[in-house]
Amino acid sequence: MSEAVLPRPTDGELAILRVLWxxxxxxxxxxxxxxxxxxxxxxxxxxxxxxxxxQIMTDKGLVERDETQRAHVYRAKAxxxxxxxxxxxxxxxxxxxxxxxRLAMQALSSRKTSPEELAxxxxxxxxxxxxxx
Length: 133
Description:
Layout: H1 11-23, E1 26-27, H2 28-38, H3 47-60, E2 63-66, E3 73-76, H4 80-95, H5 100-110, H6 115-132
């Protein structure tokens, strides 16, 4: 059985999801505090903005809300890996004509890749080649 496709998160929603993936279940206040530390004081989202975004994310099915406590606790509905896989699949289809190789070549040519990342890529390519045999 295939997984249901989740709505594509906006940049603001993705920032909130990153906090939830890192911290685990969190209240709006906890998410706001993390986001405020990451952004300059005048650039970070306000508490009410984070609250509203998390309410929208609940309606969209990106997060689940536990209302059993006074301060509602939110959790990401999908794992980071599943969300990334879905975003990459969408990007490959829309921008690269369905070609993962074109995406990889564009990504690798657009910025410097560390030796460690190149080693991981070589290992992945070798394992993919071995799977075809």
